[in-house]
Amino acid sequence: MPTWMSIRRVLAAGAKNFARGGVVSFATVLIMTVTLGIIGLLLFLSAILDHTLGVIRDKVDVNVYFVTSAQEPAINELADRIRTLPEVAEVTYTSRDEALAEFRLRHAGDQLTLQALEELGGNPLGASLAIKAKDPSQYETVAKFLDSGSALSSGTASIIDRVNYYQNKTVIDRLTGVIRISERAGTAFVLLFSLASIIIALATIRLAIYSARDEIGVMRLVGATNSYIRAPFIVAGMIAGGIAAIIVLFVLYPTSWYVSAKFSSWLGGFNVFTYYLAHFPSIFFTLFGAGVLLGGVASYVAVRRYLRV
Amino acid sequence: MIYFDKVSKRYTDGRPAVEDVTLSISPKEFVSIVGHSGAGKTTLLKLLLAEERPTEGSVFYESIPVHDIPLNALHHFRRKIGTVFQDFRLIPNKTAYENIAFAMEAAGRSDAEIASDVPHILELVDLGDKAHHFPRQLSGGEQQRVAIGRAIINQPDIIVADEPTGNLDPVNTYEVVEILKKINELGTTVIITTHNKGVVDAIGKRVITMDRGRLVRDDAQGHYVL
Question: Quick one: closest CA in A to B154, which residue?
Answer without folding.
Answer: A222
